[in-house]
Amino acid sequence: MDTLIDLGGGFASALEPASLAFALLGVLLGTVVGVLPGIGPISAIAILIPVSFGMEPVHGLILLCGIYYGSMYGGSITATLIKTPGEVASAVTAIEGYEMARRGRGKAALATAAIGSFLAGTLAIIGLTFLSPLLVKLANVFGATEYFLLMATALLLASTMSAGSRAKALISIFIGLAVGLIGLDFQTGLPRQTFGIDLLSDGVDFTIFAMALFAIPEAIRNLALGRGAKETIQSFGEDKWMTRQDWQRSAGPWARGSVLGFIIGILPGVGPSLASFMSYIMEKRISKRKEEFGHGAIEGVAGPEAANNAGVGGAMIPLFSLGIPGSATTALLLFVFTMYGLQPGPLIFRDETGLIWTIIASMYIGNIALIILNLPLVGVFVKLLKMPKEILFSAILVLVVIGAYAIEFSLFGLMMLGIFGITGYLMEKGGIPLAPAILALVLVPLLEDNFRRMLQISGGSFAPLVTRPVSLSIIILMVAGIVGPMLFRWWVSRRQLLADVTVS
Amino acid sequence: MRSTMITRTRRAASAGAETKRSVRTRAVGVGAVLAGLALVATACGNKAQPPGEGGDYPKGPVTVTAPAEPGSGWDTTARAMVEALQQEDIVSTPLPVQNKPGGTGCSWITSMMQQEKGKDDQIAVTSLASQTMKARGLCEYGPEDTTLIATLYVEDFMVVTPEDGDFKDLDALVKALKDDPQKVTVAAAGDDTLPFALFAEEAGIDPADINFVNYDGGGEQTTAMLNGDAKVAIAGMSEFRSVLESGDIKPLVTFAEKPLAAPFGSVPTAKDSGYDVTLGNWRGVFGPAEMPDEAVDFWAKALDDMSETDTWKETLKNNQWAEEFRTGDDAQAYVDEAAKTVEEGVKETDLGNGE
Amino acid sequence: MTAQRTDLITGGVIAVIGAVYYIATFSIQETANIVTPRTFPAIVGIALIVLGLFLAGQAVYRARKTALAEAGPGVGDAPGVGIGDGAAASAGEAADPHEPRGGVTLEAPPEPATRKVVFQFALFFVYLAILIPVGFLLSTAAFLMGLTSIYAPEKWIRNLIFSVVFAVIVYGAFVYGLAVYLPVGILG
Per-residue pLDDT averaged across A7-24, rounded? Predict the structure, then answer.
């Protein structure tokens, strides 16, 4: 019960008018900045860090937490409305969210994202408050072997993300891996697959890749269609708020996404982005309306958005209890802590009780501020889609270009954007889904590094895959859950095919 | 660049691998944002003031570059330094910090040697890592080739092991290494392997036999030790600060020159234990090639003033950085010496390309 | 173009890309590690070749089967024929029905003429190329004016206002609001 008392104390200081004002200000700033392409949570925090140094530590940290939550949600807005994900975690939202918006359901998509984020964020903080000491042990059973298996499973699952041919989904994954391997090798620092271009040694930026693949083909296609063609956005009249059915369909994904995101978020290094992809895949697999995925299934927005925010809460656990940042943004938060002379780690709860609980309390408040600010604004954002098509899509192209420029500041970066734009267009044309490639690009370093570590540790033996209890369980689950059904389906279709052939 | 090997310069703020990539991703964004600021700053600065003219340097903003992501060691150094310079009113012109990750700092050092040549509105942070890059033949230039302005501090390397792990002390570690080096997995970030390899060689073990496993900084290394993947880890000591304090892991040896400050005063140095290896990860500041003398002098003086301030001393203490302030020839000699150690080390321990 | 033909071309292109990628791995410096820096890229290259060939082979196989089925009397439409050129419709793979039961169904977006797509991409690349030398404001206003005027030439006043105002607002927001400096180019 000490926890509750401490938390109460935290709330007492976080609820001071000044703290509240900073939470709201942070959320507002974060949302505005997060909406701009190329500027995600990290950039938002980094830009505003100097501002926070002048403040009391409590206020500065509350402000930054608010910015974090706000910018995460801001990224979802652009992903949903204009298929322009500003960061890894919202890439999934660009799939179903945009399809919903095209069908005049942008409001429902943004609402389910906001509510899901709020619920999951809050649940994750509750988890953080009460379960930290217990959950931190989870990180200790996950070694290189388990990480490798987890990544491999995620990629295998990703091949089921999209409708259509499995072979094409695999091609998409390998395209993502191929692009992701460009640059300096992490383990040895040697350049790889740069084709003699030095500028490629920094690798391909994720945001540029995702924007190019998702936003550019869509904009170009719509612009090229000209006026004669059917409107592809907002063709179904008045945008409606979430219906009763939407609520019912969102509830499950919110809950599952929260739990999944929280657990994945705890694993250092994996972070919220994998959580949102995994949630999408899971929702699709268990859904009774599989065929709606890819055509605007609300579950595909609700689950990933919840998972993403819960992942953020999960990532705070290793940060607070071990001083290990679980995601890029928490790494930056760690830097901020250090600048204030705080050292997150097991001792921070003892030495800095007041401050740490104020931060946790301010996270609750930041979450509430997020939903208070953003739900009323959903309608405003959706109005953007009412703009004439040529204006909307040409504006999107310009914003994407600025985003790419703000990342690389070079002609080379802009050209990469253009070239991957063409790549995306051709992939769609050939029926190759885009999302698996994006996930693969994110996961390839984790997959490769951990594979190499595993073999380095075992001296070249694959034995750890089956001798370690956790890894063995993952393998069993993988075989039972993925490979088994795959083989079964293959066998069934084979039989049918043979039957067909016999008939004809 | 990925965060490849910048790791050695990064402090506790290291992140996991996904993080790695997204840090990179976002970091570049931030870098870019700040770089934008810098671009304009640069442009204005140059117009307002041709290098080497006029007496009241600096007239415009001076960009401070951390050639790595936000949160990395170089970044922390740059930001902490700017913070101290401005809080104590030592420099009044704006000092935008920009992040320019790439090739473990190689991209930016090369720019400073070529594109920025002769300019006076740019300074950047560097360290031992850039010397290793050069020694390994991965970068044309090292810090010793630039206009070195000052060295600021040293972060000492430390070998750590889990509190309840296999090794009670340094002797136990050496014995295990001699018995079967393959079994003693050493978690190291990038080329933090160098001091450990030198140490192995001193102890009569072929550095090529050491089973180094690459991790992305202290956070990952700690996790790897706690989950049993790694038996020991080597890194700059600030990487392990919180877990050392909480007692989850314990120090075995440090490669510092003299015994460490409290509370680590009792940690044996390699030298005192009979292994002649002294290597610290120094951090310093450099300017563009052929930077005007006026600017070099200004910064040497400004940094000297800064090193005396309470703000800076507090920062050193918070981060457990050991002061190693040198300017001019003194700094150059120090860095040259380090370059020699690294070069020999790389040669002797075959770190060149992992073969 | 039939789905099979698309698949055949796609598969071929992917296999070629895989081959180029695989050849590029030979320039990666080998190390003594158990898994070298070359291992993963090589696997990826080979996988792309195999998958590309598989896709192409499958297309040929299906086309043959379709031809057989069409030749044979009394058999209904073979899968993969007549689905049209839907954008991402990987026709013939038929894992998902094209008509979802619930929710709103959209027709597959019509495909624009290749000529127009090429033209749009060309315009886009011109914009990318001139952005830095000419500067953000001028190139963006020109790009927007161009795109909107191709689309709705009679609304040129609206187009002009939009192009200029949008470019200026975005420029202001990034430069003054966020200190992200966009290229000034010839105006600078």
Answer: 80
Q: Are residue B163 and residue B99 in the same domain, yes or no?
A: no
DSSP secondary structure letters along A222-284: HHHH-TTSPP-SSTTSSPPPPPHHHHHHHHHHHHHHHHHHHHHHHSTTTHHHHHHHHHHHHHH
Which residues, at least 6 apart from A314, have a Cβ–Cβ distance to it below 8 Å?
A: A124, A127, A128, A261, A262, A263, A264, A265, A266, A272, A275, A326
Q: Is the pLDDT of residue B48 over 70?
A: no
Which residues of B are less than 8 Å from C181 in CB distance?
36-37, 39-40
| Together in a domain, B18 and B141 | yes
Q: What is the rounded distance in angstroms from the CA atom of residue A106 to the CA atom of residue B326?
A: 60
Chains with at least 3 CB pairs less than 8 angstroms from chain A: B, C
Q: How far is CA B336 from the centre of its chain?
A: 16
Residue A309: name the closest of A267, A247, A266, A261 by CA. A261
Q: What is the CA radius of gyration of chain A?
A: 23
Give residue-wise pLDDT tens across range A190-201: 788 888 887 787
Task: Name the residue among B344, B149, B167, B163 with its Cα closest to residue B249.
Answer: B163
pTM: 0.78
CATH number at residue B122: 3.40.190.150
Residues of chain C found within 8 Å of residue B208, distances taken between Cβ atoms: 32
Judge: A42–B212 Cβ closer than 8 Å, yes or no.
Answer: no
- Please tell me the distance in Å from A218's CA to the nearest CA on chain B: 23
Instruction: Output the domain CATH number for residue B184.
Output: 3.40.190.10
Give the tens place of pLDDT for each residue, C132-153. 999 999 999 999 999 999 888 8
B-C Cβ pairs (cutoff 8 Å, strict): 24
**Residue numbers of the domain that contains B161:** 156-254
How far off is chain A from C81, nearest CA to CA, in Å?
15
Last residue of a domain, one of B254, B289, B324: B254
C178 contacts on B by Cβ (under 8 Å):
33
- C179–A223 CB contact, under 8 Å: no
| Domain spans of chain A, in order of start | 2-467, 470-504
Mark whether B61 and B115 lie in a shared domain.
yes
Residue at a domain's end among B236, B254, B272: B254
**CB atoms < 10 A from the CB of A271, how many?**
35
The mean pLDDT of A266-273, rounded to a whole number, is: 72
The verdict on B89 and B219 lying in the same domain is no
Domain contains B259: no
Nearest to B37 among C30, C181, C188 (CB): C181
**Residue B178 within any structural domain of the chain:** yes
Strand partners, A191: A184
* B42 and B119 together in one domain: yes
Verify that B141 and B161 share a domain, yes or no: no
Residue B224 included in any domain: yes
Here the ipTM equals: 0.81
- Cβ–Cβ gap A398/C167 under 8 Å: yes
Residues B246 and B299 both lie in one domain: no
Task: List all chains that touch chain B, counting a touch as 3 or more CB pairs closer than 8 Å.
Answer: A, C
Q: List residues of B whose CB lies inside 8 A of any C CB.
A: 32-34, 36-37, 39-40, 43, 208, 353-355
- How many domains, chain B? 2
Asked if C181 and B353 come within 8 Å (Cβ–Cβ), the reply is: no
Report whether pLDDT(A99) > 50.
Answer: yes
Same domain, B117 and B20: yes
